[in-house]
Every structure is written in C-alpha cells, then in structure tokens.
Design brief:
It contains 13 helices and 17 strands. The protein is an alpha+beta fold.
C-alpha cells in the first residue's frame, strides 16, 4: 500500500513538473514572438508614458531608481534632454528604459536618469520579459536600441545593472557589457532581528552594540529619530550636506553633493511618498544630556516595496566618535524595519569595511556599453578600459590606498 502511494505521489510530481515546464516554454515562445514584433520608440518627455510607467514599476524587483517619481524629481532639478526608450509589441508595453542625454567631451551619452546617484538599476519590464529574459533576442534588441537613438546619442551607457537580481536574470544581460568596478552589499531581513543577526557574527555584533550603548549612555543617552514632519526631514538633509562637505574637505576630495541641482533633487525626493514607499527619508541619532539636541549620525534611506536602500550617511566627527555612531545608527534602522514588510536592506554601491561587516550578500554590477555612432565606438572602448583599470586597482587594497592618496593630493 505504501509503495502504491509513493508511486501516485511521484506521478503527481512528474505531472506538475511537466506542466511547469510547459508553461515556461509557452512564456519563452511568447517573448520570442513579442521580440519579432518589437517596436522601440523614443520619448523626450515623461508625461505621455506615466500610466504605462507606473504599471511596470509595480514589479517588486524593479529598481526604485527607475520609478516615475524618482526620475521626475531628478528631471525637475537637472532638466537634461530626455531620450526615454519604450519597447512595445502590439498593444503591450514590453519595457521602458528611462534615459537622459549627458554631454561629455563633445559626446552625447545616453544614461539612466539620475545614474550618478543611483545604487542599482534594472530598467522596467513587463512580467513576461522580466521572467524570461533568456528568451530575448539580444541582437535584435541592440539593433532596435541603436536605431531609436540614432542622431540623439553616440553611446548608450546603462550602468550598475546586476545581471541577476534576487534570482531573476535581467533582460539586458545579453547586450555588450563590462563589469563595473563597484559592487553592492545587502542584508536579507528575516522574520526577527535575532534571526537576521544570525547571518552575521551575532555574538560579536551584540557585544559591540552593548559597548556602544554604554558609551552613549555615559554622555546622557540618545534618541533614534525617524521624523514624520517634512520640515524636520528637510532640516536633517541640510545638516547632512554640511557634515558631508566638511568630511570631503578634510579628505581633500570633491563634494559630490555640492551643486544646487543635486541638493534640489534630494530635497524633492523627501516629498515623494506613496503608502510605505518613499523616495528619501532621513534617520538620525540625536544625543541627550551633555550634547543635548546634537545629531551624532544621520542617514538617508529609500524604500520600494520590500527593498530599502541606504543612499548615504554622515557623522559629526566632533561627537562621541568612540561610540561609532554611524554603525550604531545602522543597528537602530535595521532593527526598526522588522515586522514592516521589508525583506532586504541594501547598503548600496562601494566596498567599505562596515558594509562587509553587515552584509552577507555581495552583488556584482555591470554596465551596458552599446555604441550608436563612430565616436561612440571610441567612447565605449575607453569606458571599458577605464572601468577595468579601476576594478584592477580596487581589487588590490595597497594600490587602491595609494591611488586614494594621490587623488586627495591633486584635489
């Protein structure tokens, strides 16, 4: 009897597997048929695409940085020419690539909107294209993108794309690419904070937290603040600009947040909030007692569905440095997100010690490098060479430290 039951279960399992394989083949066929009819059109304004755009961005795995509100905030601040690429098959939108034109050394480079301040880029795809990217005819896609951008750009440069993101292959993965020199670091959030810590060296991290807590209590304690009022959010962002400017100056590095457009963009994001999702919200560690009201550390985070990204952070180096307030703030932020539908805390791009200590997941990023014109071929070759050179240096700590010291000296 038991053998008969096992045989029945095996038959059901085989039938289910065959059905799933059949569905997968149908999806792939659907994508191939859609590719045959794919029409790529270029738009120089966002507004005509808003309805389609917002429908595609509901996909949980599409990046916040390609969302309509994020891009709208950037466009309002920078006002660069747009070359948004929409692919359609029949009456169905297959994808939207939110692209702007950046002038650089006599060349026109088509890049993701806001690429200089984005931590992950995916593009926006319909469910069929998103789930069966391997069925995409990359040669046909590349030819269509070149044709749409002809006369508008010399090079299509789509940076910081993970080829695989949370077990999904990106539709753009078959295009000409180079691996970006920067990787990103993520911490999966599990059912409880305790379980999340188990992914790390939990004992060591708790010990460090207790030490930091004692040092903060010794000066009067602290409050972790996540203000709801817009005015307080904007005040904290302005404080970040001041702290970061001082930090860059002390290192002899250029301030990437100094220009008025970047400041206007980030302030604009604070007011972009729909439900639990938000373009930018400030979190801070405010001291009590001896340093009553002073901000020791602050960070700006964004949220789209179950994905939270730490966009930036800063500390006041004149306050409680021995308590590592920046790292202590991460503990507060991450612990507070449990039970709120967040599955992933993203520390963003850039290899730093504190990220590695918190993040068990490291994600490689790639750049699409697709020449459109003759000058674009030379520009693409140069980008590949420079990117590989940076990756070579960053992979060697001693050489990277030397390069940073040279950069600081020449400003």
């Amino acid at each position: 009897m038991q053998t008969q039951r096992l045989d029945i279960l095996e038959q059901k399992f085989d039938a289910a597997a065959q059905a799933e394989a059949g569905i997968s083949r149908l999806r792939q066929l659907s994508v191939k048929l859609a590719m045959a009819e794919l029409d790529i059109k270029l738009f120089d304004r966002m507004e005509p695409l808003e309805e389609e755009w917002r429908a595609l961005e509901r996909d949980n795995l599409s990046s916040l940085h390609q969302s309509y509100d994020w891009c709208a905030a950037w466009v309002a601040a920078f006002r660069r020419p747009l070359a948004i690429l929409r692919g359609r098959s029949g009456n169905h939108t297959a994808f939207i690539l939110p692209v702007e034109i950046v002038a650089a050394r006599g060349m026109r480079i088509a890049k993701f909107i806001g690429a200089d301040h984005s931590n992950i880029n995916t593009g926006l795809f319909s469910q069929a294209f998103a789930e069966d990217g391997d069925a995409v005819d990359s040669h046909r896609l590349a030819a269509g993108l070149r044709a749409a951008l002809a006369g508008k750009a010399d090079l299509l440069l789509l940076q910081n794309i993970p080829l695989e993101w949370r077990s999904r292959r990106n539709m753009l993965a078959g295009l000409p690419m180079v691996q970006n020199q920067n990787h990103a670091y993520q911490l999966p959030l599990l059912d409880t904070f305790e379980k999340t810590l188990q992914q790390l060296n939990a004992k060591s991290r708790r010990k460090k937290f207790r030490t930091q807590s004692r040092r903060l209590e010794a000066v009067g304690g602290f409050d972790y603040i996540a203000p709801e009022a817009s005015a307080e959010q904007h005040e904290l962002l302005d404080m970040f600009f001041r702290l970061k400017s001082a930090r860059f100056a002390s290192l002899g590095l250029p301030d990437v947040f100094a220009d008025a457009e970047t400041k206007a963009f980030l302030h604009g994001l604070i007011d972009k909030r729909i439900g639990d999702n938000f373009g930018l919200q400030m979190r801070a560690l405010r001291l009590k007692g001896e340093y009553e009201g002073r901000i020791a550390a602050l960070s700006g985070i964004s949220r789209k569905e179950d994905h939270v990204i730490c966009q930036f952070g800063a500390i006041d180096e004149d306050l409680v440095a021995d308590a590592s307030p920046g790292e202590f703030l991460f503990w507060q932020m991450i612990s507070s997100l449990h039970g709120k539908g967040v599955a992933l805390f993203d520390f963003g791009l850039g290899d730093q010690t504190y990220k590695r200590s918190w993040a068990p997941v490291e994600t490689d990023h790639y750049d699409v490098v697709l020449p459109i014109s003759g000058i674009g071929i030379a520009a693409g070759t140069a980008h590949r060479a420079i990117t590989r050179g940076k990756a070579f240096i960053k992979a060697r700590p001693g050489l990277y430290k030397f390069a940073q010291s040279i950069r600081a000296k020449i400003g």
